[in-house]
Specification:
heterodimer, A: 327 residues, mainly alpha, ABC transporter involved in vitamin B12 uptake, BtuC, two-stranded antiparallel sheet, 1% strand, B: 306 residues, two-stranded antiparallel ribbon, 11 helices, 2 strands, 3% strand, globular
Chain lengths: 327, 306
């Protein structure tokens, strides 16, 4: 067992033990905090596929996070108002079933990622960063100026959506849903990275021209990776909106993109558990420092600077050494 | 729609454009010479606005406020360059994005800590208040007209600085080959600090000038920063000329889009739906412009071929 695996196993144990402790101690707020960390980790795992595996520095993943959130908001708001989304030519009604919402979120954010990626991946380097940022802003402003779904004020959903057989309003059961999804996606990501596709993607990040020489199009590889990445982040957005029972343009703002990127970097780029460790640490810092000072972002900024300047490889890089360092 | 309304909006677009140019010039210069993506450029804009508002509040003089904005932003830029930015030149873009994102957090919360959460106000001076009548009977605020003039003068000054002075030669040489000019005896790290401080001063000036027509508050820098990114992506990263053309294009598109699109949709939709769709599309219009430019020219209008 490598040291990185031990760190990963410890992280998993914490994510199982902590909520169970909070459940036994009757601390629902702590469970909600853990749920938030797990959902944000999922968003980071999505970004990590583009960023870590594909080497695409996307500063616009809030777009997919927000689209996932709005998929939930739109479907659930139509369901709670008994107001069909579309009446003719065929009837589309809102829903409050989580699986359908998730599927919609994944499809919608996947389509958005495909469209945004198709244009953005033609560019590289600084252009790519700025164009993804700009597309994120485009959706942000669109959400603000589109009055049908709350505009700037956002959209509140009164009751959390339903999952067959579970009571989603019970914090520990909702946590179980989020945690299971995170684990499933982590397994999927690990297998993706080792698959021929993942290997080719990794090769395209390192030496583009060699991949081209053996007859694989790096553009296609990246576009597929970017789309998968957007889908996962979109699913996280739907869960996040369900956690808060609220969706607003803030989910689409570029600060959200920056924060998702922080999870990945804090934990360690291209590490399977990087975003998980990063998101947990972020929520922990927010909870602890936020309790001490209203200005906790100063400390977060300082910590981030120190990590970027002196501890490359993030927390996992520090704990587990650099044996599997990418990019 | 009347001609006067249209002309006013064109002037507003120009005014937004030249202010964007002040922001974009620093960004593109820093990228061209040092290869650095600086997200914290918007924070320097904010520093300029706050310095101007504080000095104007204490002394009542608008010119002193502008001088303070230039000095404060340049000083903040120089300090940040020496302490943090300098370590990022040899890093990849990801590290640069994160470190400068961290700087935004520090700048924003630091400013909130010093000045509080409430916005400050910076008044236009008496001698620049009120409207002026332009040929064709257009009533337009003198202050906004002054912004256009200042922006164009700065653009001209920057052009002369880059093409006609010794510093300009060094900057252009630094863009091409930094080892070579270091070998020729130019203190490259001092040059970088000067370039960064120059870009910061321009951002600070823009912050102070714009601060007088909107409120001075924490987070005011980021929306304009992102517009400035769009500008330099359209113009071509590293090109000052591209920044000027891109800034005017973005300024005009944003302003005229907000005016023309809703009335365009009103020609075939009912009014409330038309203004919803129109204003939604108008707010997206500059990003659509950027996407179109990048599809045709992936390195921008004036960018070097990659």
């Amino acid at each position: 067992m490598t040291r990185e695996r031990m760190v990963n196993a410890a992280m998993l144990l914490i994510l199982i033990a902590f909520p169970l402790w909070a459940w036994a101690a009757d601390e629902p707020f702590m469970i909600t905090l853990a749920t938030k960390a797990v959902i944000l980790a999922l968003a980071g795992v999505g970004l990590n596929i583009a960023l870590g595996l594909g080497g695409m520095i996307s500063l616009g993943h809030a777009a997919f996070f927000g689209i996932g959130g709005y998929a939930m908001g739109v479907l659930a708001s139509h369901a709670q108002n008994f107001d069909p989304i579309l009446e003719g030519p065929f009837l589309i009604e809102g829903t409050n079933s989580m699986p359908i919402i998730w599927l919609t979120a994944i499809i919608a954010s996947g389509l958005a990622a495909l469209a945004i990626g198709a244009i953005s991946i033609r560019t590289t380097g600084a252009y790519f960063i700025m164009i993804t940022l700009a597309f994120g802003q485009m959706l942000f402003f669109f959400a603000i100026s589109w009055p049908a779904y709350g505009g700037e004020d956002g959209l509140s959903i009164w009751v959390r959506n339903e999952f067959p057989g579970l009571n989603t309003l019970d914090p520990i059961q909702f946590y179980a849903i989020a945690f299971t999804i995170l684990c499933a996606v982590l397994i999927l990501t690990a297998r993706l990275a080792k698959s021929p596709f993942g290997l080719a993607l990794n090769a395209a990040r390192q030496t583009e021209i060699r991949v081209e020489t053996v007859g694989i199009s790096p553009y296609k590889l990246r576009l597929i990776a970017f789309t998968i990445s957007g889908m996962i982040t979109g699913l996280a957005g739907a869960l996040f909106a369900d956690l808060n029972r609220f969706v607003s343009p803030t989910m689409l703002s570029w600060q959200t993109s920056g924060e998702i990127m922080i999870f990945v970097i804090l934990g360690g780029v291209a590490r399977l558990f990087g975003p998980v460790v990063g998101a947990v640490l972020f929520i922990l810092l927010e909870h602890l420092l936020g309790g001490i000072s209203d200005y906790w972002h100063i400390y977060l900024g300082a910590l981030l600077l120190v990590i970027v300047l002196f501890a490359r490889g993030g927390i996992i890089g520090v704990l587990a050494g650099r044996e599997a360092k990418h990019g | 729609m009347t001609f006067i309304l249209f002309a006013e909006q064109v002037l507003n677009g120009l005014q937004l454009g030249v202010m964007l140019f002040l922001m974009a010039a620093g960004l593109t210069l820093v990228f061209g010479v040092m290869g650095l993506i600086n997200l914290a450029h918007g924070s320097l804009f904010m520093v300029g606005a706050f310095a101007a508002a504080a000095v104007a509040g204490a002394t009542g003089s608008f010119l002193l406020a502008l001088a303070a904005a230039l000095a404060a932003a340049a000083a903040a830029g120089a300090i940040v360059e020496v302490v943090v930015i300098r370590r990022l030149y040899n890093r990849d873009h990801l590290d640069q994005v994160l470190a400068t994102f961290a700087l935004i957090l520090i700048f924003s919360e630091g400013t909130r800590f010093i000045f509080g959460s409430f916005p400050l106000f910076l008044d236009t001076p008496d001698w620049l208040s009120g409207p002026v009548t332009l040929p064709g009977g257009i009533q337009y605020p003198i202050y906004r007209l002054a912004l256009i003039v200042v922006g164009l003068v700065v653009a001209l000054g920057l052009y002369l600085l880059i093409t006609r002075t010794r510093l300009g030669i060094q900057i252009r040489a630094g863009e091409n080959d930094r080892e070579m000019i270091a070998a020729l005896g130019v203190d490259i790290s001092k040059l970088y600090t000067i370039v960064f401080a120059l870009g910061a001063a321009l951002a600070g000036l823009a912050g102070a000038l714009v601060g007088a027509i909107q409120s001075v508050e924490v987070g005011m820098g980021e929306p304009i920063l992102i517009l400035a990114f769009v500008v330099i992506v359209i113009g071509g990263i590293g090109s000052i000329r591209g920044a000027l053309v891109g800034a005017i294009l973005v300024g005009l598109t944003d302003t005229l889009g907000g005016l023309l699109l809703p009335s365009f949709f009103r020609t075939f939709m009912e009014a409330s739906a038309a203004s919803a769709v129109g204003s939604g599309l108008a707010s997206m219009s500059i990003y659509i412009l950027m996407a179109v430019v990048l599809m045709l020219r992936p390195t921008g209008l004036f960018g070097a071929k990659a």
